[in-house]
Design a protein that fits this description.
Length: 179
């Protein structure tokens, strides 16, 4: 997300405002889908919901690498609140829904893995690692962009590799489902 507006400007050829608006579409669908994502996690299981979210998110991100810019930027419609909706906007909205499935179910899963007296410690560990990823991710991607000579599209093929690692990690989790 840190480099998305630059990806929009340098790879898609759109304005900074349009790049930020597209990212806003992802965020809006994340917020709208937060409650349904929690409900789905309770119905089919948090782990399964997170795994489905990871797979769909990886597909969305990889599609932004493989689809040509001319396809990604095709304007499909314009809606009140959301503004212009190009093909990449739909992809990002699906990614926002997927991100809600992942994010909304993660902390409750971590909290339910421990005893009540250790909830603070486990919550601290959750935020430690998620914040560490938020700090190191942009640095790592910055190096990739720098060493590739400004190939912002590479972000969209490297990210699914990390989603695959997340999928492998979550597949080994056996605790943390809603009681």
């Amino acid at each position: 997300m840190s480099f998305f507006t630059l990806y929009g400007v340098n790879h898609l050829g759109i304005s900074e405002a349009d790049g930020a608006r597209l990212l806003g579409q992802l965020s809006l669908l994340f917020v709208i889908f937060s409650l349904p994502a929690g409900y789905i996690g309770a119905k089919i299981g948090r782990r399964k919901t997170i795994m489905v979210g990871i797979v769909i998110m990886a597909i969305c991100v990889a599609s932004m690498f493989f689809l040509p810019v001319s396809t990604l930027t095709i304007l499909l419609t314009t809606l009140p609140v959301l503004g212009k909706i190009p093909v990449i906007g739909i992809i990002l909205m699906v990614a926002g829904i997927s991100w809600a499935c992942i994010n909304v179910n993660s902390l409750p899963m971590v909290v339910d893995m421990t005893q009540p007296e250790r909830v603070g410690t486990y919550t601290g560990l959750y935020y430690l690692f998620s914040t560490l990823a938020a700090i190191l991710g942009p640095i790592f991607y910055g190096y990739i962009i720098q060493f590739s000579g400004g190939a912002y599209s590479l972000l969209m093929i490297i990210s699914p590799i990390f989603f695959a690692m997340a999928l492998i990690s979550i597949s080994g989790v056996v605790k943390g489902e809603a009681q």
